[in-house]
Amino acid sequence: MAELLLKERIKSWRASILPKSFYLRRTDKVAEKLLGKVLVRMTPEGVISGLIVEVEAYFGSEDPASRARKGGDLRRTLYGDVGLALVYGIHRQWMLNVVAHTEDEGGAVLFRSLEPLEGLETMREFRRVFKDELLTTGPGRLTKALGINKSFHKKPLYVRDHGLWIEDRGVKLREDEVIRGFRVGVSEDLPTPYRFGVKGSPFISRKF
DNA sequence: CGCCAGATTGACT
DNA sequence: GTCAATCTGGCGG
Asked: Which of A150, A24, A160 has its CA nearest to residue A82?
């Protein structure tokens, strides 16, 4: 299969931040639409960014793998305002999600893998690895590479104020360039696959 | 405060 | 392939 690098398709003059309304629709639809968008982090060291090549959709309490099942703040956040970051820790890694769902529903999209775009030197510093394929391929790896931690929890990603946002730089994916699979690492999944990836990207975290 | 499950990673056989 | 490090959040007491 031919390798697909999304950075070669960037039309940077069209860069625009994704508005809050982008996240107010079915969680799986948002997940699919996030592929090819750019996750941007502004740090004192400069801009760090990556193209989104792999995501997963998680729903509300009816989803056996959803953190909504846990109750507490995670559940409240999943059912709350869309467009906010949802950050939580597991096995000493930070997981980055964005809250996305229709009215009265709960749901969020997990960022699983990026194609590194800007600030690779800083990423290597944060990650302490030197192979580009290992910088941002995995949910725990990408948060570390971008310097994302719990302080971003519940921060809106549709404004630049907090140094973390998502942009559209005009990268378009055809329907046949998106692959689906079952979610990674969950003990109990739904009968429908809710993992989405860019077909042919060398920056997918694990084989579909 | 203690217990425990967990959307992972990296080291090692 | 196996496996454990090491930490967060929720919940019971």
From this structure: A24
* In chain A, residues 49 through 88 whose Cβ sits under 7 angstroms from any atom of nucleic acid strand C: 70-75, 88
Q: Give the residue with minimal CA–C1' separation from C8.
A: A89
Nearest to A181 by CA among A55, A34, A3, A29: A55
Asked whether strand C has any atom less than 7 Å from the CB of A174, the reply is no
**Protein residue closest to C7, using CA and C1':** A92
Which H/E stretch holds residue A197? strand A195-198
Q: What nucleotides of chain C have any atom within 7 angstroms of a protein Cβ?
A: 5-11
| SS3 state of residue A128 | coil
A66 closest-nt by C1' vs CA: B7
pTM of the model: 0.96
Length of chain A: 208
- Render each residue's pLDDT in chain A as its tens digit; 208 residues: 789 999 999 987 778 999 999 999 999 999 999 999 999 999 998 999 999 999 999 999 999 999 999 999 999 999 999 999 999 999 999 999 999 999 989 999 999 999 999 999 999 999 999 899 999 999 999 999 999 999 999 999 999 999 999 999 999 999 999 999 999 999 899 999 999 999 999 999 999 9
Delimit the domains of chain A by residue range. Answer: 11-174
Strand B bases with any atom < 7 A from protein Cβ: 5-10
- A11-174 has which fold? 3-methyladenine DNA Glycosylase; Chain A (3.10.300)
